[in-house]
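Handout, page 2. Input:
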Amino acid sequence: MTDTSPPHRDTPLPAGTVAPDFELPSTPDQKVMLSDFRGQPVILVFYPEDWSPVCSDQLGLYQAVFPEFQKHNARLLAISVDSAWSHLAFAKDRNLHFPLLSDFEPKGRVSRAYHAYRSGDGTSARALFVLDADGVIRWSYLSPVGVNPGADGILRALEEIDGKETS
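Output:
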């Protein structure tokens, strides 16, 4: 039997795609631009909401393995549609030391560009992207909203990028 259903529209941008540039608030008065990180790998973590149990666990895990990401000279940027004020309180409460970027207004603009937006509930999907030093997506993954995707896929992608750079 052949599957005649249309392709899943909510798949994240695939490997080989140049990552769309963006500028988002990291605090109420500071912004971060993706292109500022050219020359090093970048991990983009789209997540549904500050304060939710799975998001708290996921971002807490990334803080714990942050030294592993740094061994690959990778920068970690987490993105959701929550406000910069919510991000500041959440990062302080959870002791997170990487930028939480606010895709608040226009709501979900960057999440949509990466095919990581859940229009049904108005939040970012739980999507991961690893970009190489040239800003090309080398790995992407969309996790079910209620499942912490962990860090193994991110670390494998970073190791693969390191292997290509040394060849």
